[in-house]
Amino acid sequence: MSDGTGASGGLGWPDAPSGPREFSTGLGWPGERVPPQEEPTSPQATEAVEAPADDAVSRETSALAGGRVRTAADLSELAVTVHDETTPLARAAEHSVLARMGARARVAMPRPESTRVMVVANQKGGVGKTTSTVNVAAALAQLGQRVLVVDLDPQGNASTALGTPHHRGVASTYDALVDGTPLAEVATPAADLENLWVVPATIDLAGAEIELVSVVARENRLARALASHPGIGSADVAGDDRFDYVLIDCPPSLGLLTLNALVAGAEVMIPIQAEYYALEGLGQLLETIEMVRAHLNPRLTVSSILITMYDARTRLAAGVADEVREHFADQVLKTTIPRSVRVSEAPSYGQTVMTYDPASPGALSYLEAAREVAQQVTQPTTQPTTQPITEGAPR
Ligand SMILES: Nc1ncnc2c1ncn2[C@@H]1O[C@H](COP(=O)(O)OP(=O)(O)OP(=O)(O)O)[C@@H](O)[C@H]1O
Ligand SMILES: [Mg+2]
Predict the structure, then answer these.
(1) Strands 301-308 and 267-273
(2) Is 153 near ligand 1, meaning CB less than 6 Å away?
């Protein structure tokens, strides 16, 4: 493969072939890439996003829609036994099996009575907050819910993943927070999915923490913006066009932006990466949530903990997952998200994995996680069910 510079001899490398430069992934330049679903390798790849129209729904599909949630064990086993991308034939077979088992089951779920505002937070960086926000949001949209994603991270990763421009000058979260622009004016439809809207984040948001310091009730800015949106609220007030879910993607810190989200939301979803040190720092996040609940937002609860980047082949991942379940038995979703190349490459096409490769294990896992979220009826508390976490202890 060409090294892109044309230099070859001298170091013992074979001569680079002439022709177009390629990335080492072999995918070519971004503009030349063809997302897999544009040329599906199996019929299921296109069928996957369509809800079944009639009684032809398979029994397993009905069982899934009827509430049986596939467990993490099921999914990780699926990922290990079926995931094989070595040949086009193997890939087509994989799609076929996975799509038959779950992807066609995207029948609409009942809508909540009023908008559920969920804050996706963890001050640890790179644990899958953004990936979980956009994929759970996309999965909920595929399940017939109307969803708004608020990108509250100046990095703007959620905006990128949803194919929404977020360069300087675009109407964004900054305008809503700092200038008080109505949220409805800064929300735009996501690129590839119906029912999904995005409030993008531009780099200006990085300055918002400082600019808001002198503003009265600075921690309430997002809460006010959400409260004055006509499509956010209960069915009788906001009507059928209401949003069913608002998902807020937080930056990796517990600063004023995350505080705004915690004051604005009623539920927190905490993604936890199945890695060593996963629980370190979590105590601080829970303390912050507790303080916000005590002083600023009594409705706030931790409703979901989602284990991400789970590698079923390692004992470490299983150990971390066990420990998380031990501490948060009621809040941990049964579904874990496997580590998957498809999940991580989807944003480079401006997509979520839910549209980029809907039958892949990552997409099916996010779909299951979204179903679990949609089925939650009770609101658990923030209290760990067993011993509190000891900061600094090796995990
Ligand atoms: N299930 C997964 N499989 C493989 N890679 C993943 C998975 N989930 C997330 N990633 C990758 O891990 C990295 C971090 O994920 P992400 O950006 O979602 O984390 P984050 O918590 O939002 O990060 P930050 O704290 O910077 O906002 C990204 O490169 C993402 O593509
Ligand atoms: Mg992020």
Answers:
(1) parallel
(2) yes
